[in-house]
Each structure stands twice: as structure tokens, then as C-alpha cells.
Amino acid sequence: MSNTIRVGFVGWRGMVGSVLLDRMTAENGFDGYEPLFFTTSQVGQRGPYLSGINVPPLKDAFNIDELKELDIIVSCQGGDYTNEVHPKLRAAGFKGFWIDAASALRMNDSCIIMLDPVNREIIDNGIKNGVRDFAGGNCTVSLMLMAFAGLFKHGLVEWISSMTYQAASGAGARNMIELAVQMAHLTNVTAKMRTNPAGVNALDVDKAMTAELQGTTIPRMNFGVPLAASLIPWIDSAVENGQTREEWKGTVEANKILNTKKNIPIDGICVRIGAMRSHSQALTIKMTKDAPLDEINDMIASAHEWIKIIPNDKESTINGLTPAAVSGTLTIPVGRIRKMNIGPEYLTAFTVGDQLLWGAAEPIRRMLKIALEHVS
Ligand code: HSE
Question: Best of 15, 235, 248, 273 to mutate for ligand 1, by most ligand atoms within 8 A of CB?
């Protein structure tokens, strides 16, 4: 047996997996171990092209004996795969790290939700105490904690009401494409009248678009309704109390990530909007005390290196605090920070984050690095 560390990747071809591979390539993330690629359907075929690395043919992602030999497994394959393979693998004696993008294991006591810029200490203590299952958080929750980690750290948060503006990517790759196709439909029906911008009548454009939105031809197989030029104030399934599952996750996952002694309530309405891959959130924060605004800004800014405080003025906000500005970057802008008229303990703020980076792939890439330190 060689001492080479072996890391298996499952679900690397999907959207989160592809973003993960891109980030790993950019950060020399395949150095120091043998990467092996698994598949649920194409055993023996070629793996991904990685410059300078000889990637062997794809292995069977359901082969417990093969998986058992790995030191670390990184799965972006989805919850069904995790539910099927993870219990069998642990029962077969697999003692390695299981690092998962899916939600399947998240709320298990034996699993830590990884978001190391926010909960590195909890991750390190967990590893010391034998925890080997790590799951990425819900993207909205992770992005909110990335933005406001400083306030939580200083015990300044009594409760939060969050209203979200979530991008199509959170619903999946097919939904992103459907949004683009819906946009094309809407622009097509107005194309002729827009050839003469001077003579165009806004109400005619609206009429044509509304007819398309309310008609039957605009594709809606994935969202069920048009998202382009509209929005959908419902994400995921219903839970008992009138919340959606996406809204329910706010409190439970955030408190688990932070390992809070006293539960911090987080609730609001999660809304799908026509952004491609960056989620936005508007927060009302009830603070535990009337802290001065400059101290609040400092607390938020000093949490980690990716925070960017956006001054509360129009130019800064429209240029720096939008999905268009943030997508494809690791920056977590936080802006519109001000005390509310409701009272001095009520703070409002707005934040944006790339759902596929900090909301999905980046915590996984970083957790793999941490796990590698422990198996080397
Ligand atoms: N559930 C999220 C969404 C994405 O629908 O936007 C993944 O956390």
C-alpha cells in the first residue's frame, strides 16, 4: 500500500462540481494527493482534463469497496446519491472524510455544516473529536452568515428578518437556461416595435410582454410560471407553519453553523428573481443593544477578507451592490447599512453573494484543504 492520499470526486460534471473544479484549478487544488473521479453512469470513460495531471478512467461511484479505500470523498452528486451510498459506506467501515454539497446529511448530529471563514473553530474541534461528515450549508444561509459574521461574533444579533432575492442558479442548471429562454421570448415579441426607439410606446411594449407572460407559449417547464419580467415568492416545498423549506432553513442552519447557545430566530420570505447566479438579501436586524453605526460597520468589515462595505449612497450602491456586479467573484458586498426609523436597535442592510461560489463550491474547496491537512 502506498502512502499517497487519495481523494475521490463524485458529481464533478454538474454545475456546482464544474465551478468547484474551476476554482481548484485556479488555486492549485489538485496538488499533494491523487485525485480520482467517479461516475454514476459512465464507468471507464475519460475523466476531466486537468493540466499536468494524468487522470485515470472514471470509476464506479456505487462501488463501496473502491470508495472505502479513499481518504476523502467530495460529492456534488446530490442528496439521492448521498442517501444511498453514505450509509452503506460508513457501515462498510469507511473512516475517511465525506465532504458534501447536498443537504442530505446537514442536520445530522454527526455532521458539521462547513463555512470556515465563519466557523473554522467548530470545524477544527469537530475533526479533533472525530467528526468526518461535512456538508455545505444552504446557499442563502451561508451567504447571510458570510455577510454578517462580525455581528454574530460580537453577540449583537437578537433576531433577523430576511427578505431574499434569489437567483435562478439556486433552482438548478435547467432553470438558469429556462430563465434565459424566457427572456428571449419576451424580447422577441417586442423586437419589431423597438426597431424605432424614438417612436416606441412603452404601453405597447408592456402589452406585448404581458400577453406573452400570461399566454401559453413561454417555456415554464422548470419554474412552472414565467420568472423573467416577474418573480416567484415561493422556494422549495411547504413546511407545516406556512413557511417554505428555504425559509425554515434560515434559523436551523444558521444556528447550527454558529453553534449558538441560545437560538437566534431568523425568518422572512424567500423570493426567486430573474438574476442568474447571485443571491441578494435585505435584512432587518434587531440588535441586542444600541451600537453606534461606525462600530457596526467595523464589526461587519473585519469579519474576513472578502467583505466589502458599500457606502450608503446611490453611485456606490448601484455599481457595487447588485448581482451584476458580484457574479463570478468571491466578494461579499454589504451596503445600505443604516439604523431604521423603528428604533435605534433596529438595523437594516443589504448584501449580495455568488450562489455558486460562497453559496456552494467555495466552502467545499476550502474544506477539502482543511481535511487534507488532517490526513497528511
Ligand atoms: N435552495 C437554494 C435556492 C439553493 O433555491 O436558491 C441552494 O442552497
Answer: 235
Place of cell 456552494: 360
Q: How far apart are CA 363 and CA 125, in angstroms?
A: 17
Q: How far is Cα of residue 183 from the mean position of the Cα atoms in its chain? A: 24
pLDDT in tens, 291-324: 999 999 999 999 999 999 999 999 999 999 999 9
Q: How many CB atoms lie within 10 A of CB 128?
A: 9
Q: Is the Cβ–Cβ distance between 287 and 301 less than 8 Å?
A: no
Please tell me the distance from the alpha carbon of residue 74 to that of residue 9, in angstroms, as a whole number: 5
> pLDDT confidence of 206, banded at 50, 70, 90?
very high
What is the per-residue pLDDT for 2? 56
The yes-or-no answer on residue 154 being catalytic is no
Q: What is the pLDDT of residue 1?
A: 43
Pocket probe for ligand 1: among 138, 257, 281, the residue whose CB has the most ligand atoms within 8 Å is 138
pLDDT of 194 > 80? The answer is no
142: helix, strand or coil? helix
Q: For residue 109, give Cα distances in angstroms to 90, 191, 201.
A: 15, 55, 60
pLDDT of 197 over the 80 cut: no
Instruction: Determine the atom of ligand 1 nearest the C-alpha atom of 279.
Output: 6
- Catalytic site residue from 76, 139, 154, 270: 139
pTM as predicted:
0.97
Work out the burial of residue 303: count CB atoms within 10 Å of its CB; fewer than 13 is exposed, 13-18 middle, 19 or more buried: buried
Residue 140: phi and psi, rounded to 5, are -65, -40
